Request: fold
Amino acid sequence: MININKYSIGATAAIITSMGLIAGLTQGFEEKSAIITGLLIIAIADNISDSFSIHMYKESEGASKKEINSSTIGNFITRFILALSFAVIILFLPPFTAFIVSSIYGLTLLAILSYLISQHKETQPFKEVAWHLLIAIFVIIGSKFLGSLILGVDIDV
Reply:
């Protein structure tokens, strides 16, 4: 069986951050390059930061070198692959369609991950899935709103 602990942090972060970025940026950017650049930054810079944070947290817990490396590498690879998968959606679809498809894709992945977590914890799957999807939907709506708000403001540099 898959060790869900090793992948859940990275998967959740990649899914929710990617959906939020896409939701916010598709409010006004017709340029796919801006959205793909944001997703690549998530896949690399934000991912390194997050993976390093997990590495340091595991060190502070006194975890074994093997566990530290496994958690760090597992997080990095999971986040990298997921962020890139969202970039592929943007690459091949028009922005609004990509927003819809990436939201469905992300919510589906999150529901599956939540279900696996509930199985691992031996809790009610419906509660886990519903709560996690509610948070993700809040991020999507908030990001859409923020994207609209920023577009309505003329910023002089």
